[in-house]
Amino acid sequence: MIEPVRAVCPGSFDPITRGHLDIIERARTVFSEVIVAVGRNTSKNYLFEGDERLELVRESVADIDGVTVEPIDGLLSEFCKEHDASVIVKGVRFGSDFDYELQMGQLNRILSGIETVLLPAGREYGTISSSMLREVAANHGDISPFVTPAVNAAVRSKLGY
């Protein structure tokens, strides 16, 4: 019998997009359990606070069996050890994503022995990013095709329209 494999899908998810959800759902078809690790990247400016992002992610993945959401503060490799996860799953859209994630995957493997699996972004959401959507929304553009209705409402409310 094959042992269950727990994977971690990390990100800042500000906000979570349908592209993120596609990666999470696809990861869940491959791995027994997926933990969505919601973290903070010190080089990013956020629209939502950490607790707000956690809640939006939890709402967005609530109907996906085998997926849980946890906050992460610190090294991803340590988070994976603490949660008995053996794989990190990252989505990649472009060559620049691949280059960065390859470096991070190699570093995480050296630090902890954990493997990284890179999933290509789905074609319908492969060109979007949370930062792009924040910019569009800040200028009163419609981001509803790229996020869940709850996320769309939260973004609009946060931006005051």
TrEMBL record:
<feature type="binding site">
    <location>
        <position position="90"/>
    </location>
    <ligand>
        <name>substrate</name>
    </ligand>
</feature>
<keyword id="KW-0460">Magnesium</keyword>
<feature type="binding site">
    <location>
        <position position="101"/>
    </location>
    <ligand>
        <name>ATP</name>
    </ligand>
</feature>
<feature type="binding site">
    <location>
        <position position="76"/>
    </location>
    <ligand>
        <name>substrate</name>
    </ligand>
</feature>
<comment type="similarity">
    <text>Belongs to the bacterial CoaD family.</text>
</comment>
<feature type="binding site">
    <location>
        <begin position="12"/>
        <end position="13"/>
    </location>
    <ligand>
        <name>ATP</name>
    </ligand>
</feature>
<dbReference type="GO" id="GO:0005737">
    <property type="term" value="C:cytoplasm"/>
</dbReference>
<protein>
    <recommendedName>
        <fullName>Phosphopantetheine adenylyltransferase</fullName>
        <ecNumber>2.7.7.3</ecNumber>
    </recommendedName>
</protein>
<keyword id="KW-0067">ATP-binding</keyword>
<feature type="binding site">
    <location>
        <begin position="91"/>
        <end position="93"/>
    </location>
    <ligand>
        <name>ATP</name>
    </ligand>
</feature>
<dbReference type="GO" id="GO:0005524">
    <property type="term" value="F:ATP binding"/>
</dbReference>
<feature type="binding site">
    <location>
        <position position="12"/>
    </location>
    <ligand>
        <name>substrate</name>
    </ligand>
</feature>
<dbReference type="InterPro" id="IPR004821">
    <property type="entry name" value="Cyt_trans-like"/>
</dbReference>
<dbReference type="GO" id="GO:0015937">
    <property type="term" value="P:coenzyme A biosynthetic process"/>
</dbReference>
<feature type="domain" description="Cytidyltransferase-like">
    <location>
        <begin position="8"/>
        <end position="135"/>
    </location>
</feature>
<dbReference type="InterPro" id="IPR014729">
    <property type="entry name" value="Rossmann-like_a/b/a_fold"/>
</dbReference>
<comment type="pathway">
    <text>Cofactor biosynthesis; coenzyme A biosynthesis; CoA from (R)-pantothenate: step 4/5.</text>
</comment>
<comment type="subunit">
    <text>Homohexamer.</text>
</comment>
<dbReference type="InterPro" id="IPR001980">
    <property type="entry name" value="PPAT"/>
</dbReference>
<feature type="binding site">
    <location>
        <position position="44"/>
    </location>
    <ligand>
        <name>substrate</name>
    </ligand>
</feature>
<feature type="binding site">
    <location>
        <begin position="125"/>
        <end position="131"/>
    </location>
    <ligand>
        <name>ATP</name>
    </ligand>
</feature>
<dbReference type="GO" id="GO:0004595">
    <property type="term" value="F:pantetheine-phosphate adenylyltransferase activity"/>
</dbReference>
<keyword id="KW-0173">Coenzyme A biosynthesis</keyword>
<keyword id="KW-0808">Transferase</keyword>
<keyword id="KW-0548">Nucleotidyltransferase</keyword>
<dbReference type="Pfam" id="PF01467">
    <property type="entry name" value="CTP_transf_like"/>
</dbReference>
<comment type="function">
    <text>Reversibly transfers an adenylyl group from ATP to 4'-phosphopantetheine, yielding dephospho-CoA (dPCoA) and pyrophosphate.</text>
</comment>
<keyword id="KW-0547">Nucleotide-binding</keyword>
<feature type="site" description="Transition state stabilizer">
    <location>
        <position position="20"/>
    </location>
</feature>
<keyword id="KW-0963">Cytoplasm</keyword>
<feature type="binding site">
    <location>
        <position position="20"/>
    </location>
    <ligand>
        <name>ATP</name>
    </ligand>
</feature>
